[in-house]
Amino acid sequence: MTFATILMTWSLYAAFAIVGLSQILAMVRLWIGPATGDRILALDTMFINAIGLIVLLGIYQGTAIYFEVSLIIAMLGFVSTVAYARFVLRGDVIE
Fold first, then answer.
1. Which structural domain range is residue 62 located in?
2. Which residue among 20, 41, 68, 92 has the highest number of C-beta atoms inside a 10 angstrom radius?
3. How many distinct structural domains can be found in the chain?
4. pLDDT tens-place string over residues 27-37
């Protein structure tokens, strides 16, 4: 193994740990958030962290299918965050 391979592997492990920790912290904010806006932002942050974990998994395994999955999750996360925020603000999603 070359130094670049070892460095890449350890960097991926560190990135997994950091993104995983941030996912746990966002989950805590979702659970104890004092306001509804904090909970909406925590949910959006959890979607972003999930996308980050999926992309890191794709880099680690060397396959491209994970990048397509992350795009689908990004679209679903955006739409659900907007719908939830609209529901909280107006009481309904569809006018």
1. 3-90
2. 41
3. 1
4. 999 999 898 88
Other C-beta atoms lying within 10 Å of the C-beta of residue 66: 19
Q: What average pLDDT score do residues 19-44 get?
A: 92
Looking at residue 74, which CATH number applies to its domain?
1.10.287
DSSP assignment letter at 91 = S
Question: What single string gives the DSSP state of each residue in 27-73?
Answer: HHHHHH-SSHHHHHHHHHHHHHHHHHHHHHHHHHHT-SHHHHHHHHH
Q: How far apart are CA 74 and CA 50, in angstroms?
A: 9
- What is the rounded CA–CA span in Å between residue 54 and residue 81? 19
Q: What's the pLDDT tens digit per position in 72-82?
A: 999 998 998 88
Q: How confident is the model at residue 1 (pLDDT cuts 50, 70, 90)?
A: confident
Asked whether residue 95 is assigned to any structural domain, the reply reads no
43 within a domain of the structure (yes/no): yes
